[in-house]
Design a protein that fits this description.
Elements: E1 4-13, E2 16-26, E3 30-35, H1 42-49, E4 56-61, E5 64-65, H2 71-77, E6 78-81, H3 93-98, H4 102-105, H5 111-123, H6 139-152, E7 157-161, H7 169-186, E8 189-193, H8 197-203, E9 206-211, E10 214-219, H9 221-224, H10 227-234, E11 236-243, E12 246-254, E13 270-271
Length: 273
């Protein structure tokens, strides 16, 4: 069980500042959603936590600076589900998922490793794909396989970068149900970047809303999702209604020239469960 603490995290590419003083923390058994428009820094922040990118500031896992952890320790602690799978992998689905066991067993594959892979594939409903070539899968199938690989890694911190972007509605719900259950069961700390505000409201414990690489607001979806905030951050007028006790954003129209639009609809309307 790991606490994740980010303090004044900044990152820049040559000539472009991407992240500015990002600070927040999450604890075991919590799933925090990263939301915000394109270019707000969500994927960059995920890569900084995973040390794919080297940020300034501090990222601590139970008080230990992530950049000072050795490669094996990081691999045992952090699991990443990237936004897009690398289609160049020349391996079967089973072999791809088995790679998630490498931090624990190196190159010695045990019966336990094989059982964990088989169980994970079945839990995700992709057991029938085990012997298929990873490179021949659809984008959505690859995302499912990479999620399985991260689960088999048994990390204490799970990072997910748009894990449902290539999935249909049913599989979006199935994946997030499984991830949410695993986070609670294993007391993992999870950070998930999402474009879908409504999935975020339904499945995360808290939200961090980014705009232009800065935290615009943070808290529960019930606190963040207002018509005024959606307009300011996303540039659209929207209606926020309550569906099964959770806020649900209904986009209406883009704001022309980012100018304020009067007569925002009320956020008090409720749809019965």
């Amino acid at each position: 069980m790991v606490n994740v603490d980010l303090n004044k995290v900044c990152f820049s590419y040559p000539g472009a500042d991407i992240l500015h003083d990002v600070t927040f923390c999450i604890g075991p058994g919590e799933m925090t959603g990263l939301i915000g428009p394109n270019g707000s820094g969500k994927s960059t922040l995920i890569k900084c936590i995973d040390t794919i990118l080297k940020p300034r500031g501090s990222i601590l896992l139970d008080g230990k600076e992530v950049l000072k952890m050795d490669q094996v320790e990081r691999a045992k602690t952090i699991g990443l589900v990237p936004q897009q799978g690398t289609s160049a992998m020349d391996s079967t689905v089973f072999e791809t998922v088995l790679m998630g066991r490498r931090p624990h067993s190196a190159w010695r594959i045990s019966d336990e490793d094989i059982d964990k892979v088989a169980d994970t594939l079945e839990r995700l409903g992709i057991g029938d794909m085990a012997m298929k070539d990873f490179a021949c899968l659809s984008g959505g199938q690859k995302q499912m396989v990479l999620l399985a690989r991260a689960i088999c890694q048994e990390p204490e911190v799970l990072l997910l970068d748009e894990p449902t972007s290539a999935l249909d509605i049913r599989h979006q719900l199935e994946v997030l149900e499984i991830v949410n259950d695993l986070v609670k069961e294993r007391k993992m700390s999870a950070i998930i970047a999402l474009h879908d505000l409504n999935l975020g409201a339904r499945y995360t414990d808290s939200m961090v809303m980014l705009r232009d690489g800065r935290i615009f607001s943070a808290g529960k979806a019930e606190e963040l999702y207002t018509p005024e905030m959606i307009e300011e951050v996303y540039g659209v007028t929207a209606e926020v209604i309550i569906v099964h006790g959770k806020p649900h954003v209904v986009p209406l129209r883009p704001v022309k020239n980012n100018s304020p639009v009067s007569g925002l609809v009320s956020s008090e309307q409720e749809i019965p469960a």
